[in-house]
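Now for a concrete sample entry.
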Amino acid sequence: MTLTRWQRPQLWDAARHLSSLREEIDRLFESPFSLFENGSQPFSGGWVPAIDLYEDKDNVFVRAEVPGMKNDEIDISLHEGVLTLSGERKLEKEYDKAESHRVERFVGRFQRSITLPHPVDATKVRATYKDGILAVTLPKTEEAKPKQISVSAE
Protein backbone atom coordinates (compact mmCIF):
# COMPACT_ATOMS: atom_id res chain seq x y z
CA MET A 1 0.00 0.00 0.00
CA THR A 2 1.29 3.41 -0.96
CA LEU A 3 0.28 6.55 0.88
CA THR A 4 0.13 9.78 -1.04
CA ARG A 5 0.02 13.03 0.83
CA TRP A 6 -3.08 15.11 0.03
CA GLN A 7 -2.36 18.40 -1.67
CA ARG A 8 -4.75 21.29 -1.99
CA PRO A 9 -5.78 21.81 -5.65
CA GLN A 10 -4.00 24.70 -7.29
CA LEU A 11 -6.60 27.47 -7.63
CA TRP A 12 -4.47 29.32 -10.20
CA ASP A 13 -4.47 26.32 -12.58
CA ALA A 14 -8.24 25.96 -12.27
CA ALA A 15 -8.74 29.68 -12.93
CA ARG A 16 -6.52 29.51 -16.02
CA HIS A 17 -8.51 26.57 -17.42
CA LEU A 18 -11.82 28.36 -16.74
CA SER A 19 -10.52 31.50 -18.43
CA SER A 20 -9.51 29.49 -21.49
CA LEU A 21 -12.90 27.78 -21.58
CA ARG A 22 -14.65 31.16 -21.29
CA GLU A 23 -12.65 32.55 -24.24
CA GLU A 24 -13.55 29.52 -26.36
CA ILE A 25 -17.25 29.91 -25.54
CA ASP A 26 -17.09 33.68 -26.20
CA ARG A 27 -15.49 33.04 -29.58
CA LEU A 28 -18.20 30.51 -30.47
CA PHE A 29 -20.99 33.00 -29.75
CA GLU A 30 -19.24 35.99 -31.35
CA SER A 31 -19.16 34.34 -34.76
CA PRO A 32 -21.30 31.18 -34.83
CA PHE A 33 -21.03 30.74 -38.60
CA SER A 34 -17.27 31.29 -38.78
CA LEU A 35 -16.73 27.52 -39.02
CA PHE A 36 -18.25 27.60 -42.48
CA GLU A 37 -16.46 30.63 -43.90
CA ASN A 38 -14.24 30.13 -46.93
CA GLY A 39 -10.70 29.15 -45.99
CA SER A 40 -11.45 28.07 -42.43
CA GLN A 41 -10.74 24.68 -40.94
CA PRO A 42 -14.17 23.35 -39.81
CA PHE A 43 -14.26 21.21 -36.70
CA SER A 44 -10.52 21.47 -36.11
CA GLY A 45 -10.76 24.88 -34.48
CA GLY A 46 -9.62 26.96 -37.46
CA TRP A 47 -6.55 29.08 -36.98
CA VAL A 48 -6.38 31.18 -33.89
CA PRO A 49 -3.14 32.86 -32.85
CA ALA A 50 -1.71 31.87 -29.48
CA ILE A 51 -1.65 34.76 -27.02
CA ASP A 52 -0.10 35.74 -23.70
CA LEU A 53 -1.97 38.18 -21.45
CA TYR A 54 -0.19 39.64 -18.45
CA GLU A 55 0.10 42.87 -16.48
CA ASP A 56 2.26 44.98 -14.24
CA LYS A 57 1.11 47.84 -12.01
CA ASP A 58 0.74 50.28 -14.93
CA ASN A 59 -0.08 48.25 -18.05
CA VAL A 60 -1.82 45.22 -19.48
CA PHE A 61 0.22 43.42 -22.14
CA VAL A 62 -0.93 41.14 -24.94
CA ARG A 63 1.49 39.18 -27.12
CA ALA A 64 0.12 37.22 -30.09
CA GLU A 65 1.88 34.84 -32.46
CA VAL A 66 1.00 35.84 -36.03
CA PRO A 67 4.01 34.76 -38.11
CA GLY A 68 4.12 35.27 -41.84
CA MET A 69 1.97 38.40 -41.80
CA LYS A 70 2.65 42.04 -42.51
CA ASN A 71 1.70 44.66 -39.95
CA ASP A 72 -0.92 46.17 -42.31
CA GLU A 73 -2.70 42.78 -42.48
CA ILE A 74 -3.48 42.86 -38.74
CA ASP A 75 -6.43 44.77 -37.27
CA ILE A 76 -6.71 45.68 -33.60
CA SER A 77 -9.79 47.13 -31.94
CA LEU A 78 -10.81 47.90 -28.36
CA HIS A 79 -14.45 48.14 -27.33
CA GLU A 80 -15.92 48.04 -23.82
CA GLY A 81 -12.95 46.25 -22.27
CA VAL A 82 -12.56 43.67 -25.04
CA LEU A 83 -9.46 43.68 -27.25
CA THR A 84 -10.02 42.09 -30.66
CA LEU A 85 -7.21 40.99 -32.95
CA SER A 86 -8.12 40.01 -36.50
CA GLY A 87 -6.59 39.63 -39.91
CA GLU A 88 -5.94 37.25 -42.73
CA ARG A 89 -2.87 35.20 -43.54
CA LYS A 90 -2.80 34.58 -47.28
CA LEU A 91 -1.45 31.59 -49.16
CA GLU A 92 1.99 32.37 -50.53
CA LYS A 93 1.96 32.90 -54.30
CA GLU A 94 4.54 30.26 -55.12
CA TYR A 95 2.37 27.54 -53.54
CA ASP A 96 -1.10 28.41 -54.85
CA LYS A 97 -0.80 26.21 -57.99
CA ALA A 98 1.57 23.57 -56.58
CA GLU A 99 0.66 20.02 -55.59
CA SER A 100 0.58 19.78 -51.80
CA HIS A 101 2.02 16.81 -49.92
CA ARG A 102 1.63 18.26 -46.44
CA VAL A 103 -0.07 21.46 -45.30
CA GLU A 104 0.23 22.25 -41.60
CA ARG A 105 0.34 26.05 -41.56
CA PHE A 106 -3.04 27.69 -41.36
CA VAL A 107 -4.09 30.35 -43.82
CA GLY A 108 -7.22 32.44 -43.93
CA ARG A 109 -8.99 34.83 -41.60
CA PHE A 110 -8.67 34.82 -37.85
CA GLN A 111 -10.28 36.74 -35.02
CA ARG A 112 -9.37 36.58 -31.36
CA SER A 113 -11.17 38.58 -28.67
CA ILE A 114 -9.80 38.92 -25.15
CA THR A 115 -11.63 40.40 -22.20
CA LEU A 116 -9.14 42.63 -20.41
CA PRO A 117 -8.73 42.24 -16.65
CA HIS A 118 -8.76 46.02 -15.97
CA PRO A 119 -10.02 49.23 -17.61
CA VAL A 120 -7.41 50.72 -19.96
CA ASP A 121 -6.82 54.12 -21.51
CA ALA A 122 -7.71 53.56 -25.19
CA THR A 123 -5.99 56.79 -26.27
CA LYS A 124 -2.56 55.49 -25.13
CA VAL A 125 -2.61 51.94 -26.51
CA ARG A 126 0.54 51.01 -28.49
CA ALA A 127 1.07 48.06 -30.82
CA THR A 128 4.24 46.80 -32.47
CA TYR A 129 4.96 43.84 -34.73
CA LYS A 130 8.36 42.18 -34.98
CA ASP A 131 9.56 38.67 -35.84
CA GLY A 132 6.02 37.31 -36.04
CA ILE A 133 4.98 38.60 -32.61
CA LEU A 134 2.31 41.27 -32.21
CA ALA A 135 2.89 43.19 -28.96
CA VAL A 136 0.07 45.36 -27.61
CA THR A 137 0.63 47.57 -24.55
CA LEU A 138 -2.54 48.87 -22.91
CA PRO A 139 -1.99 51.45 -20.14
CA LYS A 140 -4.35 51.01 -17.20
CA THR A 141 -6.63 53.88 -16.25
CA GLU A 142 -5.66 55.71 -13.08
CA GLU A 143 -8.65 54.15 -11.31
CA ALA A 144 -7.41 50.64 -12.17
CA LYS A 145 -3.86 51.17 -10.87
CA PRO A 146 -3.07 49.94 -7.36
CA LYS A 147 -3.02 52.64 -4.69
CA GLN A 148 -0.80 52.76 -1.65
CA ILE A 149 -2.80 53.63 1.46
CA SER A 150 -0.95 54.86 4.49
CA VAL A 151 -2.00 53.82 7.95
CA SER A 152 -2.02 56.53 10.59
CA ALA A 153 -1.50 55.89 14.29
CA GLU A 154 -4.13 57.12 16.69
